[in-house]
Please model this.
Amino acid sequence: MKNNSKSFQPDWTETAPAKKSYRSIFKWGSPEGFKHPNQKLFNELKETFGLTDEHFRVKQPEGNETVSFKKAIKLTKAQVKKIAAIVGENNITSDEYDRLKYSTGKTVEEAIQLRNGIVDRVTDLVVHPRSKEDIREII
Model:
């Protein structure tokens, strides 16, 4: 069924991502800002990929689930303690969301994986050095 109406508009998402959700990692820019394809681009996408309006009537997974994965940290407690001693306890985190946020979500492929809750690689520890000296000492 070909339905490429020029007036059809998908039900674009216009809400900020839930905090600590997969979508919040790959939602670039302001969480409340949205820029959807204009009608010309939308029609071109449908034509190029052989799609109809029907392909856009049902929303696909958007990654609104809270980040949750079970990937153990490979650093030893002694290594984490040493890094914390260098940069300060407040400048490290092993929180699942932070580990994933700083490990991924920068490419289209990663965004698609995150939409589906797929976590491949993730850092063991997020470190926010305060100075060049912190970086030197960590290295």
Remarks:
- The chain has six helices and two strands.
- The longest strand covers residues 92-93.
